[in-house]
Amino acid sequence: MDPTKPANRGSSERTPLLNGEGSNNTASGATGHRRPTSGSNLKHFFTNARWTPGTEHDNLVVRSAAYTWHVTKVTLLSNYVNFLLVMVPIGIIAGALEWSATAVFTINFFAIIPLAAVLSFATEEISIKLGDALGGLLNATFGNAVELIVSIVALRDGQIEVVQSSMLGSILSNLLLVMGMCFLFGGLAHRGTNGHGSEQVFSAAVAQTTCSLMALSSASLVLPAALYAVMDQNGSNAKRESILVFSRGTAVILLILYVLYLIFQLRTHSNLFDPEAAPTLAAAPAADDETTQTPETEAAAEEEEPVMGPVAALGVLIVVTVLVAICADYLVGSIDDIVASTNMSKAFIGLILLPIVGNAAEHVTAVVVAIRNKMDLAMGVAIGSSIQIALGVTPFLVIVGWIMDKDMTLRFETFQTVSFAVSVLVVTYTVQDGKSNYLEGAMLIGLYTIIAVAFYATPGDAMDTAKGFIFGNS
């Protein structure tokens, strides 16, 4: 979730898994919907994500209990990955009873994935009634809440390398893996006929703007690395202090630029980010355009209303945030033992594994909307989330580290910095024409796989030792 996503999403993202019959016929009530005219109450009680029997009962106790179940049911049916919610209590028990590090890490790893999906859903429910501006700001605040919580917990424990790797990993997974999968599967679904291939189209103006911001964020990592190299070559003894000052000043500037980006996107130039104004498919038959304007699409637009009230959504948001913090605490606490027992580097855990935790649900959503030829929305998920991490979350963590007296800087490990810079360069060349196809998607996925293999092949003590030198007394 990210501020490039409109407050109202469309059935592909916002429609719950199981919709009860007659859910379009709604009126005021506890859930804001009319009672369906057909179907058994038992079926609606368990499967209707728009209405629950008892929410309009005269008895306050019955009405409250029914609405509590309605909120729980709607939350459970909001995403396919929510079947993994059973891992949440198991993960907490595993951490509390001090099971093996592998068990604690694995269980809590899978537990946080559905929690991230629920967090995204609750945020969307609140943002619908706030309008595009406030809704976008809320999305910007909570869009990467899972990554932020995990990183703050790791920062508190002094796992600076894990924090840096997870931030970079989130950016790379969005830029290369998610965008690559969108281009690949969307391109295959809309490839045209042999000899008359077609390409999917998205807003080139938005792509250029976001790629420029990504290039800026890349520079904010390259410059600290270059500064450190110069001071190290000259034998300076003030490398640590200089990098800290440089990183903290740069973090403030990046946060200011991120605020300006939000204003640019949500206020002054919101027309550039309007998917309705962009074409959908280049060189496609006219029949394809007709299929995008079906009664199903129109019905989806009418469904754009919350399925639970803002107070209930806020309650879900608070509960899930607490659960994420607990699971993240156990997850991060097991990393040192995992590294010691498997010789897997912290860089690989942060760069490849942890981004899956916070972004799995969004990754699936991006691919689904790309297959449905909504490339502007798919690009918003991929590039927009990357901008959030690069210009918002990472600088914010530098400031948090400053407050916590932790040496969190923008001086990343050299190979990580090079990987990021190369990835931004490749992505910029790929999206600059505003068109995509499955070959470009395969290229992006290939680059991501190369980077993942490189970090997996690196021994656990190689980059960790270098990092200890950077933040040591040198």
Automatic annotation (TrEMBL):
This is Vacuolar calcium ion transporter. It is a multi-pass membrane protein. Has a role in promoting intracellular calcium ion sequestration via the exchange of calcium ions for hydrogen ions across the vacuolar membrane. Involved also in manganese ion homeostasis via its uptake into the vacuole. Residues 101-266, 313-456 form the Sodium/calcium exchanger membrane region domain. Belongs to the Ca(2+):cation antiporter (CaCA) (TC 2.A.19) family. GO terms for cellular component: endomembrane system; fungal-type vacuole membrane. The chain crosses the membrane at residues 77-97, 104-122, 134-155, 167-189, 201-231, 243-264, 311-335, 347-371, 377-403, 438-457. NCBIfam families: caca2, cax. It is found in: Endomembrane system; Vacuole membrane. GO terms for molecular function: calcium:proton antiporter activity.
